Amino acid sequence: MRFMACSNIMVKDEISSAGSKMLYNFKAPFGADVYDRCIGKGMEFAGLIETDEFGIDSLFEQNTDAAITAMLENRCDFVLCNDLFGKLQRQAPGHGLVYINPAYGAVSRQGLIPAVSSMDRIGVLCRNIDDGCRVISAISDGVSDFAKEIPDKATEYKDISQLKYTDIIPYVFYILASAEISGNTARYDGVKFGFRAENAQNLNEMYLKSRTEGFDRDTQLAIITGCMVLSKDNYNKLYHKAMQIRRLIAEHYTRLLDECGFLALSPSVTGKNNLERSVFCLLSSLCGFPSISMKHGDSERLFVYKG
Amino acid sequence: MKYEVVMGLEVHTELATKSKLFCSCSAEFGGQANENVCPACAGMPGMLPNANKRAIELGIAAGIITNSRITPTISFDKKNYFYPDLPTGYQITQLFAPICKDGYVDIETADGGRRIGLTQIHLEQDAGKLVHSYDLSLVDYNRAGVPLIEIVSKPDFRSAEEVVAYLEKLRQILSFAGVSDCRMQEGSMRCDVNLSVREAGSDVLGVRTEMKNMNSLKAIVRAIEYESQRHIDALETGSEILIQETRRWDDNKGVSYSMRDKEEAADYRYFPDPDILPIDISDEWIAAVKSTLPESAGDKFARITGQLGISEYDAGIITASRKLSDIFDKLTQKGLPPKDVVSWIVTELLSMDTQENKSNDDIDIDCDKFADLLLLVERKEINRNTAKKILSLIYNQNIDPIDYVAQNNLGMVSDTGLLEGIVSEVLAENPSSVEQFLAGNEKVSGFLMGKAMAKTAGKADPAAVRMILMEALGRL
Amino acid sequence: MTAENVKTYESMAKFSLDSDTRTWIADVLSGLEDGFGLLDTINTCGITPLITPLAKTNIMREDVAVKQITRDRLMSTAPAEYDGYFQVPKTIA
Asked: What is the mean pLDDT of residues C44-51?
């Protein structure tokens, strides 16, 4: 199989920029574990694909992701990605593609340029379930068999009263994600590697210029939000509270999955912004549940499993 | 008006591990700049932190020897701020569940014993080093990520003397337990002082300032004296309004400066590090650490004064320093008599280097060579004066004593026939002294003794020369 | 959320944003305020925070020093290097 990887997955001695000017010349000193495993299975590497900076989706724009385009142009059989904002899961079914997320922690994050440590995971954008399962098996230690539970296409889904917290999930997600992004991107400062702005008269100016010029707007928004939710005045009210609600959400949906085996949800719903549109993908990110986004009959489906 | 100074201490000390806290880079001191640095501790993305078990164990050991409660489940947090010596833009430290809480350390001062309470001890990463030269600053990350403990005391100090006694006690117990080398000069042990002044008898605390950058005990004492006086002057004359702030001590100028830029960015935005799972510390693990702790300074003092008959004064010197104590152990393990070893360490070795600011823990000598030297003395192959000179050469130039004695023909002259000949010569050359001796002036024997020793170039065993000389004089 | 509020967080983040970006961020954050406000509707009294979905325990490593990378390779991606050190502008203006 031929594969590509989003550029936040490091390939030794290749420029692994994670879509960021901050890393425009960053030659990775070692390769990601997933890359080595794929090569070890005899798969053929077809190159890195540009990604939204660190995999951070815009809150409002809905441009087609470069990984989707690469698949549609038939440049490879699958792409390794970190779809923590649900952008690929929203878009894949509409293009006849499948996105598979392993359970959080099932696939090594070694060599993944981090965005949200507690949600980052390497998943697979592919053409069909069989391909996806083969790849997930290759890059994880366990055999992934959750996909065998994909239901008969005729099944009807009824009881949605159990889907709690849906209004709050996008915001709990963004509070936690932005905070972790602000921490994980603090290392990009022009001192040790990557982009350094020119003509800084002193250290502080170098920091300010490099970080202001080096990140794009959506990342800066996330970092500012992260600083806000972690600041003394807001930590308890927003960050701590969001971590507590995350537990309530995880406990509720784990119970539900214990009863049902899986949930059949929508990868894309209507909403004011992309966070709200991705609500069920973000549920999977928050709780680390494995999931599959695909066309199922006439509907676009996000199947969520307990893992 | 009488004033009381109230102080609390934050002591940082690097743990004696081989590798760093969250990556496998060597934690060894020295070496070329950025030699012991990997992508992770240079702040590059993509590597996950992997906790060093030994560092956790040394944290547990620190808790045991400071009578602290060990936290059953510890976790790590990110402390966010920007500075070039901090490669990731955050320091991994412990805010929410530090490894130890509620300990204490007993100290002795001229005014008697006192108990200093500890709020907590937490584990964290050290930062790198920023070197300033003319128009640029240079960064070395060799120390970045080396494990530290920060020992936070309660505001229990009332004098600089207590602070010094506490730091010396900490250095003693931490170094004997193998937790840290506690070298202040090299920066492996650092101390920040929180200080406030209030009217004696008041139970309200004054405005508190935090002082950083004191690199020796002397600097700490000077800084405390300066800062207390600055507070008292402000209270008495109103010349200055005290504010809660961080100040940097300049030991050359003998003054402290406000570090306002540090205050500005004081919101560290701590949050739990999701990449480091909590670590459970079981009672069994604590017991295992306890069982492997080396002999404490207190136990050693009792043992060597009791079983080995070393004086309390000498034992106090030996057990105040882990380094001296180790030298003592190594030499006695080679079969040298403990009392002789103590005498050589306390009177000879300690006089080798009397530089300012050098502590006994800074003494560095090859113990095998030191032992070889003392064995030469024990076997009467060289005399004590020669040995002292050679000790200085071992200390300063690391020479091999056995080779040196052989090459310079310093072996003690103990050939009786040779010595008898020399004594006869001396008696023949100094007839008037011999007459004086025979007339009852026995002190003259010392003069004759000196003449005889001089003829052997100082290499003879003085006891043997004395015996032969007295016999010869007796025969006259 | 005003542009002035954003400035506070800019200094924490080491940004010096142009006024357009600052206004845009202030507007977006104002738009998210209602969503963030929803957190107040949930009673979380006594709930332990969930930091990571992983329920595993930490696997520690033994204290063995291993050299990972040469200094030359490490410094090869440095924006400015001097004699084996990373070089930065003077800390004071």
From this structure: 97
